[in-house]
Amino acid sequence: QVQLVESGGGLVQAGGSLRLSCAASGRTFSMYAMGWFRQALGKEREFVGARSWSGGSTYYADSVKGRFTISRDNAKNTVYLQMNSLKPEDTAVYYCAARWMGVPGPSRPSRTDEYDYWGQGTQVTVSS
């Protein structure tokens, strides 16, 4: 079992930055791919980006590529989402998710049903 707790959301003006954190429980954090998703009001949850397990790749949705950066600190069991040049359309609840990579499956998971564990979400609001 993995428990995920996001933090760092808030209100920011367009063009500003925020850094979200996702702290994970468990002793095998490095064996999980860690993803970020977001869900705007009235819309489906969508993929933002993910960092594969330790040593793996980082990949992003086109809508955030070049503005958002994912990093992870396996020693702290934490993954980060640095968001720069924020736009009003980035307003959403942001969720982190974890997928156990010790079984066969996609090497770059990006769908909600490919992740096993979810955090409770943190609100990000970008004002124009």
What does this structure look like?
Strands 2, 4, 5, 6, 9, 10 and 11 form a 7-stranded mixed β-sheet that branches. Helix content is 0%, strand content 48%. It has no helices and 11 strands. The protein is an all-beta fold and 128 residues long.
Structural topology:
Blueprint: E1 4-7, E2 10-13, E3 18-24, E4 32-39, E5 46-51, E6 58-60, E7 68-73, E8 78-83, E9 92-100, E10 117-118, E11 122-127
Parallel strand pairs: 2-11
Antiparallel strand pairs: 1-3, 3-8, 4-5, 4-9, 5-6, 7-8, 9-10, 9-11
Task: Give structural attributes.
four-stranded antiparallel beta sheet, seven-stranded mixed beta sheet, 0% helix, mainly beta, 48% strand, 128 residues
Globally, the shape reads: globular
Beta-strand fraction estimate: over 45%
The Cα radius of gyration reads 14 Å
Along the chain, the helix and strand elements come as EEEEEEEEEEE
Q: Tell me the total number of β-strands.
A: 11
Given helix and strand content, the structural type is mainly beta
Terminal-residue CA separation: 40 Å
Query: Can you tell me the residue ranges where pLDDT is under 50 for at least 5 consecutive residues?
Result: none
Provide the helix percentage: under 10%
Q: Helix tally?
A: 0
The averaged pLDDT comes out at: 93
Sheet with the most strands, sense and barrel status = 7 strands, mixed
